[in-house]
Amino acid sequence: MFNNSKIKGRGAQLNTHNCFFELSHELRDDFLEYCEKEGEQADKNKTQYLEVFPKTIINKVTSPDVGMAFSMNMYQGCEHGCIYCYARNSHEFWGYSAGLDFERRILVKKKAPELLEQFLKKKTWKAQPIVMSGNTDCYQPAEQHFKITRQCLKVFLKYKHPVAIITKNSLILRDLDLLKALAKDHLISVNISITSLSETTRRILEPRTTTIKKRLETVKVLSDNKIPVNVMLAPLIPSINSHEVLPLAKAVSEAGALSIAHTIVRLNGAIGEIFKDWIKKTLPDRADKVLHQIENCHGGHLNDSRFGTRMRGEGQIAKQINDLVKLAKHKYFKDKTMPKLNTSLHDVYKEGQLKLF
């Protein structure tokens, strides 16, 4: 059963307490009752874009199990509203909640292209792939207005530097001209996140994301233009989308994807509270079942922070999911592989053009 009595267009249905703050903010029942009587809105549910001014844009990734060494994020917070998003907790570092604030208060780094260019010109820097969206989606709705991601791609192309992209938005096709130019020198790879083939599931898990049809079309267009695509089946959630592994793998392989990757959902930090509140309001008939099965994957807890096991889980349910993914890879990707990005060109383009001497 699906419950419609929820905040429309949002994943989280509440603002959790920021663990770094002594004080907390809450909407009291008497205030909500007053607003109802007065015909006023207690919460206007509007998105705010707030400019921030970081001194650097490239982050060194020290976690050994995330598959990247360096990342950059043009935006903090994400309007996509994916209920399971691990990045929600990072919004607390900025003084906001991991809940609704994460989806409605988007921090914008307009100076990102300049900071990136400064970094790539460092004499001490040796080219390694930099991942755009190690935290939040670089093609989220804010990008339509600010175009920061497009500006950064121009910088990567200018300096012939390898870049990888993680997104679930078809807006990436707007920049097909730059992606094709990067692909000529093997400087680009794209990771498209597709968590379900069901639009109903997509809408409740990821309320402001591109449709599944559009995402599959995006995989095909990129692949047809010789841009290598990996599809992230992530996260896989028991009794919500875990049964879709094989049909998902088949669909993305037929669309041209060269590989798939997956994680099993883990609800770290404030996300546990956000997810529990969401599922009891959204899928009340199966809430307890799903929560217990997630716990079964993580030693009786909703979260596991141990490197090596946190992404794959453990126990019988996790084993079944992981075995399904192995079967899917063997069945649909046996003769496919993602190429390595080219790190050999950047050094001679440090000044923005090929050195002649």
Automatic annotation (TrEMBL):
Transmembrane segments: none annotated. Keywords: Iron, Iron-sulfur, Lyase, Metal-binding. One of its GO terms (molecular function) is iron-sulfur cluster binding. The keyword Iron-sulfur applies. SUPFAM superfamilies: Radical SAM enzymes. Residues 64-301 form the Radical SAM core domain. The keyword Repeat does not apply. It comes from the Bacteria. CDD domains: Radical_SAM. NCBIfam families: rSAM_PA0069. This is DNA repair photolyase.
